[in-house]
Amino acid sequence: MTTARPLIVVITGSECTGKTTLANELAAHFAAPCSPEHVRDYLDRKGMPLDASDVEGIARGQVDVEDAAIAASTGLVIKDTDLVSTVVYSTHYYGTCPDWIGRAARERRGDLYLLLTPDVPWIADGMQRDRPSGRAQLHDLFRHRLESLGARFVEISGDWNARRTLALAALSGGVRLDLQCGVRLDL
Question: Nearest to residue 108, comparing CAs of 163, 156, 41, 63?
């Protein structure tokens, strides 16, 4: 007997845009499993800045946490980032990304991406965040990567309450999505 693949919703975007908070809130609201952003645990364990030699380990760990959430799902999985983030950040910081990660990002592409805009305050978080002035550039890189993958995405902006409201609307069918491009939502 084959079970249907769950709906995969990915919360993505540049650093300090509320991805983890929103992913956890949506998972709780819909009683769905949530895969964490693996790089956070990876960096905490490493205890020093990342370099290009870390990219493949980060990607493998991300796949593992995503697969665990998918295995626990009965219909919906929320991902606090996915391999698209690994591709964007690896390319941005190191100028390249291993081919297998790019292929896997395409093959494992989510059904819907909520692309959070960098219009909320940046908050320091140790080694986890280092580019308060580079968030707009990274946001553009995320948007372009999602477009190049043909991914369905909704840009979410506004304060924390607006983000929550817009994300719930997107997941509850309150947004008609164009399969070829993103939709921007603002309150």
Answer: 63
